[in-house]
Amino acid sequence: MPQYMCSNCDTELPFDHALCISGCRLHFGPCSGIQESSWRKGDKSSWKCLSCRKTSNLKDQKPVTAEELREFMLTLNEKLKPIQQIETINETVQELQKSMDFMSGQYDSLLLKVHDMEVERREQNGKIQELKTIMEEKDNSIKTLQARVRECEQYARNRNIEISGLEFSESENLHDIMNNIAQKINVQYCSEDIDIMHRVPSRRKEEPPKVIVQFTTRSVRNHWLKNKKYDTITSDMVTGGRANTTVYLNSHLTQEWKHLLWAAKQKLRPIGYKFVWFSESKIYAKKNEKDRNVIIISSQEDIDKIE
């Protein structure tokens, strides 16, 4: 846009300024004698500045001079310049329209890509859900197989007892020791009831090796385990040695069941469960002798659920 100069103070005018019918361009205020608010409310087509008002009568009485005509033509040309600029504006609008069309095409292309990505995402989510279902089924199958293996391994030991706390001697006779234990727990000892017995290394070096006894029948094994609780036995009572450590007779558990029994005791004893024991491939727990609400535990998940 062309820059105009104030007809009064000869300084550059802002975009908004006063324009009198004589072509004078002035600042609002002292230069023009009118405020912007009054200018906007008034009739702009007939407004004259102070200078033009003073000379209006004189100019009306005088013939138009060449200078006045020249100034009028200059003013007219100034007014016609915006019309001349319309063509340039039209070209600019056309360029903008082309840009808008290009942007619209790009936007449509982007929408199509987003739609394709959304379809692909849904397909991937469907496949992921299918894989999750398959994995859950396989996890359940694995857990079932693990439980069966655990039961089979424990079933293979259902005629065994594990004796801990017995002092070890190079010259010991395990049959004699078993006979002594039988007397202490009031069980009739018969060597024919035993298939095999031997010591196994202990995980703790300070403890003597444990003795594993395999009976010929499960009922004999159960009879020994039932009677073990009627008397407390120490090693020196049955081995003739010096150690007076307590002798324990327990079911011969797999390492996995041992850990599960230990975890159950760690969780349940502090919250009031007095009895936690293993029997027939299950762990049982109750708070006291009269408690009929016996909890059955067969996995770590069962322990975690107890509150």
Automatic annotation (TrEMBL):
Matching Pfam families: Baculo_FP_2nd (PF25298)
Signal peptide (residue range): none
Keyword entries, A-Z: Coiled coil
Domain FP protein C-terminal positions: 254-306
InterPro entries: FP_C (IPR057251), Transposase_22 (IPR004244)
Stretches assigned to coiled coil: 86-148
Protein name per Swiss-Prot or TrEMBL: Lamin-like protein
